[in-house]
Amino acid sequence: MQATYLKDYLPPAYRVTHTELTFDLDPTATRVKARLHLERHPEREAGLPLVLDGEGLTLKQVAIDGQPLEADEFEADAHSLTIARVPERFRLDTEVEIAPDTNTALEGLYRSNGMYCTQCEPEGFRRITFYPDRPDVMATFSTTVIGDRESLPVLLSNGNPVEQGELPDQRHFVTWEDPHPKPSYLFALVAGSLEKVEDHFTTQSGREVLLQIWVEPENLDKTDHAMASLKRAMRWDEETYGREYDLDRFMIVAVNDFNMGAMENKGLNIFNSAAVLTHPQTATDAAFQRVEGIVAHEYFHNWSGNRVTCRDWFQLSLKEGFTVFRDQTFSADVNSAPVKRIEDVSFFRTAQFAEDAGPTAHPVRPDHYIEISNFYTLTIYEKGAEVVRMLRHLLGWEDFRRGSDLYFARFDGQAVRIEDFVACMAEVSGLDLDQFMRWYAQAGTPEIDAHGEYDYATGEYHLRLSQRTPATPGQSEKLPLHVPIRLGLVGTKSGHDLTLKLADAAGGSETLGKDAVIHLREAEQTFVFQDVEEAPVPSLLRGFSAPVKLRYPYSREELAFLLTHDSDGFNRWDAGQRLTMLALDDLIAAHRNGVEKVMDVRLVEAYRSLLDEPGDDQAVLAEMLTLPSEAYIAEQQPVVDVDAIHAAREFVRQSLAWQLRDAFLAVYRDNQNDEPYAPTPEQIGRRKLKNVALAYLMSIADDEAIGLTQAQFKNSGNMTDVRAALTLLAHSDRSDLAEPALKAFGEQWAHDPLVMDQWFTIQVTRPQPDVIERVRFLMEHPAFSLKNPNKVRALIGAFAQNRVNFHRLDGQGYKLLADVVIELNRLNPEIAARIITPLTRWQRFDEERQVLMKAELERIRGEKLSPNVYEMVERALA
Ligand code: B3K
Ligand code: ZN
Questions:
Q1: Which CATH number fits domain 309-441: 3.40.50.720, 1.10.510.10, 1.10.390.10, 3.40.50.2300?
Q2: Looking at ligand 1, which atom is closest to the CA of residue 373?
Q3: Which of 395, 301, 288 minimizes the C-alpha distance to 334?
Q4: Tell me: the pLDDT tens digits for 186-244?
Q5: Which Pfam families does UniProt cross-reference here (predicted)?
Q6: Is the pTM higher than 0.80?
Q7: How remote is the CA of residue 157 from the centroid of ligand 2, in Å?
Q8: Ligand 2 is a single-atom ion; what residues have CB below 5 A from it?
Q9: With contact defined as beta carbons under 8 Å apart, do 422 and 391 qualify?
C-alpha cells in the first residue's frame, strides 16, 4: 500500500471557487449532482489533467460547460475520475449514485437510526461525489437536499437556509448556502425526523445568532447542559481570544452511530450522542464535563480550523493541537483549574507517553502516512496542545494572544502550515523559535535529568539539567529541544517560595520573581540561582510546563515536604504521585521476589495528613487521594508485570483503608449532599471525594461499607453516585452483591443506549478472572452491536484496558480482541484500527505474552486488510 509524503506536496492543479450540490435522498440509491466551478491554480502549469477523488461512486453523467463527455474523454476507476483535457476555467457537472444504507464505515453519507448524516473529515467527501478532496481547496457551497416529507421532515446543511418548497411524490426540499469558503471536509448534511431545542446568543458586536440542538424526540430533555456549555464557550472565545461567531445560526445534531466524539462542520456540528446528551439521572459528572469540553472544542474550531484551516493533513495538529489547548484552558477557567490540569496530565502521561514510546510513535507533524485516519492520535491532539501550551509559557499570555490575533488576521480564509502559526508567535515576541520547531518534527518523550546543589557558603543553588530523547521508529538521532521549565525553589525552613535570581553568562543576574520559566536549550545546561537564603527543595516543571519525563532524585522526606508546602497545586499532587510510586516500586519488587509486602508508613502518614486537613477544594483532595492507575504504573516499569502491579496497588489501597478507615468514613459522611443535582465544580468535587472515600472503604468490604454502598446505589438520584456504587458492588468479590445490582440496573436502563454503554463497561472492567467469557456473552446481548462505535468502545475497548484480564496468560484476551479487529476491519476500518492499539504494545511485556500478542497480530496480518488496519499491523510488527 502506498504512503503519502509531506515532501511531495504540490498545490492542486485546479481549484474550486464555488460548489453546488443536489442530494436526492434514498437509502440504497441516493443521487448526488455536483456542479463545480473550477479554474487552474495560478501556481501550476497549464494543460494538466483534472484528477478528482471519488471512492465507491457509481458515475451516471459527466459534462463540462454543459457538454456531456464521451466515454473516451474521461476515465473513472475505483478511486478517481480523470479528464485529460479541460479549459483554464470551466464548469463541471457530475451525477453519481451512492448507497447510504450499506455504509458501515460511517464515513461519507450514511444512515444512523433511520437518519441521514455525514462525516467527511478527513477524506469522506470523496465517498459522496467526485471532488478535489483536500483541505487546501476552499469553495463556497450551495446545497439542495431533497427527501420524503413524511419520514425526513428536517433537511439540514451548512450555512443559512435560503429556499424551501414542495415537490411531487410527497417530497420536499431545502436549499442551504454557506458564504464562507471551506474545504470539503467541513461539508455536512443531516436529514431525519428530528426535534430541536432553540436558544439565542448576542455576539459582542451585537449580532443575534440562532442556536439549535437537534435530537431524536426522546432526548429533548437531555440538551440543557450542551446548550449552556455552547453559550459559555461563545462568550469565552470572545473574551479570551477576541473571536466572534460569523453565521446567523449554529446547529448541533446528535447521532448514535459516530466514529469520533464530534465534528466541527461549518455551522452544523455533528455530535456523537455520547458527547452531547446529558441528564443527571443518566450521565455522570465526568460525562457532563466531557460534553462541556467537546461542545467548546468543536465551537472553537470555527476559528482554529474552519476560518483558518490546514494546507494538508500533515498539518492536522495546527488545528487540533491549538483547539485542544483552547478547550483545556476554557474548561480550566469555568471549573477547578488545578483539577483540570491534573486530569489532563495524568491521562497524557499514561496514554500519550505510551504511544510515543511504542511502534506507532510519530511526530506532532508526521512526514508520511498510509491512512491519514490513523493519525487522529494523542500525539497530534494532546501533545500538539502541550506544544502550544509551551509557546504560551515562552511568550507569556499577552504576547501569545497578540500572536494568535496576528495568525487569525493574516491567514483568515486560507489553508496554512504549522510554521505559519509559529512564525506569528516569533514575530510578535521577537523570540527565536527555530529550535522550538523541533517539537513538531521529533517523536518520542524527552527525558530530563535534574540535579540540584545548594552551597551554604555562597548562597548559590546550582541546577544541572540534561535532556535526551530516545530513538523512535525511523528517527534514531535526536537534537536538543527548547524546553520551558517552570519552577520554584521552596525554602526548607520557611516552606515558602524563595526569590529566583538567575545568574547570566555575562556575570550579571536577573531577578525572575518566585515562580518563573527558565529556557533549557542545550543537551546539558546548568542554571545558577544567587542569594538563595536557605536550602531549598526544587519544585520543577510546575503545571507540567513541558511534555517530558523529569527525573530528580527526591528523597521521600523531600516529597512529603513538597506535598504539603509546594505553592503549585499541580506539583503538590505530583509530589504525592511520586511518593506513592516509590512505595509501589518496593511492593512490586517484593511481589516478584515472593517476599512479604510491607506498607510504607511515610505514605500512610502523608495520606493521614491530607485527610486531617481537607482544605477547601474537594476535587483536588480527591485527586490527591487517588492512586496512580495500573496503566500509569505500567508506564514506569521497564518490563510490565501486570499481576505484580495489580497486587501492589491493591495492597496499598487496602492498607490505607485499614489504617485510615475512620478518616475515610468521616470524609464520606461529611461530603453527602442533599441539594438538587447541578454540575457545578463545588458539587462535582464533593461527589468525587465522597466516592473516592467509599472506594477505599469497599476495598475492605466490611458490613458498614457494603451497607453504605448499597444504600447509595438504591437511593441516589444521580448517575455519578449510582454508577460509583454499582462499580464497587460489581467489582467486589461477592457475586451476591454484584449480580443483583447489575441485573437491576440493566433492566432499569434497557431503553437508554448511553446508560447501557456504562453497564457494559462496568462489567468488563471487573478484576475477577471470568471476564473474557463475560465479554463474549455480552457481545450477544440485544443492546450490543459491532456496528455501533460506542458499543465497541464500551465493551471491547474497555475490556482491553482491564489489564489483568486482557493479558491473561492463556492468550484468550488477545484472541478476543483480534477476532473483533478482523470483523471490524470489514465493517468499520477506522474503529478497527483504533481498538487494535493495545496489541501493538507487545514489546512492553514479558517474553511469554510477547509471543502470544505477536501471534494474534500475525493472524490479523493474514487477512485481506483495509489500509487502516494494514498500517497499524505493519508498524507493530516492523
Ligand atoms: N475534527 C474531528 C475529527 C474527525 C476525524 C474522523 N476521522 C473532531 C475534532 O477533533 O474536533
Ligand atoms: Zn478537533
A1: 1.10.390.10
A2: 7
A3: 288
A4: 999 999 999 999 999 999 999 999 999 999 999 999 999 999 999 999 999 999 999 99
A5: DUF3458, DUF3458_C, Peptidase_M1, Peptidase_M1_N
A6: yes
A7: 20
A8: 320, 323
A9: yes
